[in-house]
Amino acid sequence: MPGADKETDLTERIEAFLADLKRGGSGTGPLRGSGEMARETTYLLRRITAQARWSSAGDLMEIIRNEGRRMTAAQPSETTVGNMVRRVLKIIREEYARSRGSSEETEQQESLHKLLTAGELSEETFREHFVHLKANVIEAINELLTELDGTTDNIAMQALEHIHSNEVIMTVGRSRTVEAFLKDAARKRKFHVIVAECAPFCQGHEMATGLSKVGIETTVIADAAIFAVMSRVNKVIIGTQTVLANGGLRAVNGTHSVALAARHHSTPLIICAPMFKLSPQVFTTCSLSLNDVNSCFPVLKILSKVNVHCPVFDYVPPELITLFISNIGGNAPSYIYRLMSELYHPEDHKL
Amino acid sequence: MYHRYVVVALSRRKPNEGKELTKEEKQRLRKQKKHQKKQKERKNEKGPSETEKDKTPVSLLPPPQPVATQKAPSALPAPASAPIPVPASAPFHSSPAPSPADKPAKSKAELKAERRARQETDRAAKQPGSSSSGIKTKVPLSELNPVVKRLPEHVQVDDPAVVKRLAKKLERQQIPLRSDYGYKVSLFSHLHQYSRKAPLTQLLSIPSTVIHPSIVRLGLQYSQGIVAGSNARSVALLHAFKQVIRDYTTPPNEELSRDLVNKLKPYISFLNQCRPLSASMGNAIKYIKKEISNIPSQCKEEEAKTKLLTCIDRYIEEKIVLAAKAISKYAIEKISDGDVILVYGYSSLVNNILCEAFEKSRKFRVIVVDSRPRLEGREALRRLVQRGISCTYVLISALSYILPEVSKVFLGAHALLANGYVMSRVGTSQIALVARTYNVPVLVCCETYKFCERVQTDSFVSNELDDPDDLMVTRKGKTQLENWQDVSSLGLLNLVYDVTPPDFVDLVITDLGMIPCTSVPVVLRVKNLDQ
After folding, report:
1. Per residue in B448-458, pLDDT tens?
2. Main site of residence (chain A) (predicted)?
3. Residue of B190, B391, B401 to mutate, interface with A, max A Cβ within 10 Å
């Protein structure tokens, strides 16, 4: 009976989470920031590990994979959910390998040497039962959670290395990571921030009020003025929704224009993104739902005769990006694929 | 012997042609001082008497000069001062006589060159409203008239001396001074920033005695944004001036050509205060002033007025209406069936082109790109949809999303600068940049009357700052930036124009034909020679 209660409790929580995801939508921006989303997902996965019925690592992975598929189907634009699922899968594999006694390194890496010497690829079935696997996995997930908690602070700590005094920094829309980054630098340095408002939702306004409250000289400009103002900007620091495997970005609408303008003026483009945003997915665009469009453009009575496009995300190719600042330090876009291979197992790329 | 006669004959014909360099230099300096004093006095509007004195050396030059005929009635006071320079030079005429044979030949050529130079500079000085006269017309000898090009006052707001001077000038003209509003971003502290809620007309008395009512109405329409777009503004300005001319009567003892120009000056200052003049308006005003001062003085008032009215009508017809037709003709050649054309904001010329192309049954569809805070694209969208053209509407942030579908970009311009840069609504340079990245051709359509001699390389040094409150937006009942004035470190920047470098623009379509961006100074030169 207690088992059944736990299970119903678990399924209830999962359903609640899925409903939340569906409701969140990418119209006005997610209801919660992606950091919170990642944390919620990880809590839920920990709960599944603790409460669901499984006997071997393979079972657990199957359960988590199924749940992960449902979660990503509920809200495809929210990639952090899928990323956390993949991280947890990788954790399970690692713990399983450690329990089995084999060293992690040789199992994980696919090198040419291994391909030559191993001959037939051994099929890992994860069927062995280990007593302490559950505890180990839960402990590893807790470590992941502490890492998630500290991402924003880790990024913000690097701020002083990248911002000098009397700089003019441009940013686009609203990113909690960038806000924390700039606020941290503002404690010691004086600089000027130009915020592009990012129509139609104008998240940039919130960012500007937040920054100016701490005493940073902020200016709000319209999206159209980005190129006009770019010649006086020293650095462009932006956040992103997702970092793709090739080092490119899936960022808020308008970021590609900013990146092109920065390249034209040879201004460095710096992305502040924590590691949980790294995703092995392919770029897919998505558009606003119809009611959001109607709320953006209320006055267009001729709307029925006109096609209105309102894309939410932009693809920025890696050639336009100078630097990624993440919780593990600064990286060039060409190194992202390597970081990704450390975070996720290649078989988990497709859930 | 022979050369002595030659020298004397020359001296009789042109008495104030100094033969020796030192005397020449002295005269030149004297002339420069008089010229500068004349410019100052013209600003002070003290009346024509002093300027007459300056014209006297000119009136003694050979009669074919058109200037002399204008000055005939006022020639009476002239001879009184004329003899002064003449006797000064007369005693020195005999000195070069004993010089060797080749010297008179050289001095004759030298004389001719100097005479021509002086005629040119005087002609240039006579052109009305030409504070930058030294730059506009050719000054072949650079030592003559080192005229400093005066920077317009509306880009020197951070200089307190200039602001004080402007305030004094406006006080004299009885025009209220408009005060700046809101916190100005430090990069733009040299420009004005006004609020739309405080129009200049609130400070005027009703009825205004100094300013014609149609000008007051026009100023209000400008400052509230009711009349916007460079063609619309120029046409409205010219119509208002027509009304002014119709209602004008020459006061006694005044000349129409002189007095009307002086009457127009406070109107222009007023309009400038309401909203900084556009390049097209500047060119139109220059044209009007030239036409007015070219009115011969024996012309009767009614005749002069009808002449001016027809001139203005012809200007509008030629430079705006017919030019639009010519540009449409060229542009339609560039539109082919199946095209997807991107336009930005509302340009009357581009709209005209698209409507005409649609009437000539070209099959294309249009993507209208719009931007906050003006949202002018909606007007363009409305007009195009009314004609039945299939349209798509996006905001400028969706540009990278929509550009892969586009085959051509048509842009309008506010002005074309002499170094090939295109000054247009803010956001145009962004569109040109992204279009260039996707290898989409960018065509700019602009009439030649908008070509301007200024040069500019960035959007900071000369721009217009619109009301910063326009950037505020209320979503779901909440206005984020409501109290932006209270936060000292927060500034809102609402730019109106930006400049697009010529390497982003593939073609400029003008009424003279299709030219590359870099040919703008050639067109300007041709226009100047025509005038």
Report:
1. 999 988 899 99
2. cytoplasm
3. B401
